[in-house]
C-alpha cells in the first residue's frame, strides 16, 4: 500500500522564490559581463577608427614633421616601458617583503597599522604623488645623480651628464614605484594569509624556521597570485598620466635615465590633447591605441603565466 505524503504535489513558495532569485542574479551577472565586454569593444573600435588617418598618413602629412607615425610613437613606447619596468623592479621586492611582514611576522596590532597605512597610500591621488616627486623627490635625488654621473658615467644609463632639477625618467620611475607599491602589497598580503594553516604548521612541526616555512609553503602557494599582483601594478604604471607629466621633463629619447629627455605615451597625450585638432588629434589617439595594445598584451601574458601554475601551487 502506497502512502502519499500530504505535502506532495503542493507548490513550495520558498523553493520557487529561491529559483527566481537565482535567475535574477544569474541574469544580472550575465548582463554586467556583457556590458563590460561591450564597453571594451566600443573603446577599441573608437581608437581604431580615429587612429586610421594617422596610421595611414604618408610623409609630410603628419603634424609633428616625422616621416611616419611609428617614428613618432616609438621613442614614447620605449620611455613608457622603461619607466614602468624600473618602477616594477623597485616596487616588487619591497611590496612582497612588506606583505610578508604584515601577514607572518608583525604582531596583530602592528600589522593592522601597517595595513591601514598601505591602504591609505593607495587612496592618495596621482596628482599629489606627481607634485611630491617634482617639488621634493627630484631635488633630493640630484646629489645621487651627480655621483652616478661622475663615478658610473661609463654605464650608458648614467652617461652624458645629469639633470640639475631632478626631473628625469628615473625620478618618474621612483614615483611610479611608490604608487604601485600599495597595489602589489595589498594583493600579496591577501594571498599570503590564505595559505592553508595546516601546511604552515606541518612545515614548522618538521623543524623548519619561519623563513623556511615561508619558502616551502607560502611563496609556492602564492606564486600565481604574486604574478597577478605584479602585472596589475605594471598595468597601473603603464597607464599613469598626471604623476609622470608633472615629474618628467620631456625631450628626445635617450639611454640616460638621470638627465632631461625621454617621454611616455600617457604624458604626451595629457600635455597635447587639449589643444589638438585635425591630424594632431588623430596622432594622439593612435598613440593611445598603442598604449591600449601594450596594456592588453601585458594582461594576456599575465593570465597565461597564472594559468601555467594554477594546477600546481607547491603547497597542495
TrEMBL record:
Listed Gene3D superfamilies: MetI-like (1.10.3720.10)
Compartment(s): Cell membrane
Transmembrane segments annotated in the record for this chain: 24-49, 69-102, 114-132, 169-193, 213-234, 285-306
NAD is among the record's keywords: no
Keyword vocabulary terms for this entry: Cell membrane, Membrane, Phosphate transport, Transmembrane, Transmembrane helix, Transport
Positions of the ABC transmembrane type-1 domain: 77-302
InterPro entries on file: MetI-like, MetI-like_sf, Phosphate_PstC, Phosphate_Transport_Permease
Broad class of the protein's primary localization: membrane
CDD domains: TM_PBP2
Keyword Transmembrane assigned: yes
Topological relation to the membrane, as annotated: Multi-pass membrane protein
One Pfam family from the record: BPD_transp_1
Entries under NCBIfam families matching the protein: phosphate_pstC
Family: Belongs to the binding-protein-dependent transport system permease family. CysTW subfamily.
Function field: Part of the binding-protein-dependent transport system for phosphate; probably responsible for the translocation of the substrate across the membrane.
Protein name: Phosphate transport system permease protein
Amino acid at each position: 500500500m502506497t502512502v502519499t505524503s500530504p505535502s506532495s504535489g503542493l507548490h513550495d513558495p520558498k523553493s520557487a522564490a529561491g529559483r527566481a532569485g537565482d535567475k535574477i542574479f544569474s541574469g544580472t551577472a550575465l548582463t554586467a559581463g556583457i556590458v563590460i565586454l561591450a564597453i571594451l569593444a566600443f573603446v577599441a573600435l573608437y581608437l581604431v577608427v580615429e587612429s586610421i588617418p594617422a596610421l595611414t598618413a604618408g610623409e609630410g602629412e603628419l603634424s609633428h614633421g616625422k616621416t611616419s607615425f611609428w617614428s613618432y610613437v616609438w621613442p614614447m613606447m620605449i620611455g613608457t616601458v622603461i619607466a614602468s619596468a624600473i618602477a616594477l623592479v623597485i616596487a616588487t621586492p619591497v611590496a612582497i617583503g612588506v606583505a610578508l611582514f604584515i601577514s607572518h611576522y608583525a604582531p596583530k596590532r602592528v600589522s593592522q597599522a601597517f595595513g591601514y597605512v598601505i591602504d591609505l597610500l593607495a587612496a592618495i591621488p596621482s596628482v599629489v604623488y606627481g607634485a611630491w616627486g617634482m617639488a621634493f623627490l627630484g631635488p633630493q635625488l640630484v646629489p645621487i645623480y651627480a655621483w652616478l654621473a661622475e663615478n658610473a658615467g661609463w654605464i650608458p644609463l648614467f652617461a652624458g651628464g645629469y639633470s640639475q632639477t631632478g626631473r628625469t625618467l628615473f625620478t618618474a620611475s621612483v614615483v611610479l614605484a611608490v604608487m604601485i607599491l600599495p597595489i602589489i602589497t595589498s594583493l600579496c598580503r591577501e594571498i599570503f594569509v590564505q595559505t592553508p594553516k595546516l601546511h604552515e604548521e606541518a612545515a614548522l612541526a618538521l623543524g623548519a624556521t619561519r623563513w623556511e616555512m615561508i619558502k616551502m609553503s607560502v611563496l609556492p602557494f602564492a606564486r600565481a597570485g604574486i604574478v597577478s599582483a605584479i602585472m596589475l601594478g605594471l598595468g597601473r604604471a603603464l597607464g599613469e598620466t598626471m604623476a609622470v607629466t608633472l615629474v618628467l621633463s620631456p625631450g628626445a629619447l635617450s639611454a640616460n635615465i638621470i638627465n632631461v629627455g625621454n617621454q611616455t605615451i600617457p604624458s604626451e597625450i595629457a600635455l597635447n590633447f587639449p589643444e589638438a585638432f585635425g591630424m594632431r588629434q588623430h596622432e594622439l589617439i593612435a598613440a593611445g591605441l598603442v598604449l591600449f595594445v601594450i596594456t592588453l598584451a601585458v594582461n594576456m601574458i599575465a593570465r597565461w603565466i597564472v594559468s601555467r601554475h594554477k594546477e600546481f601551487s607547491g603547497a597542495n
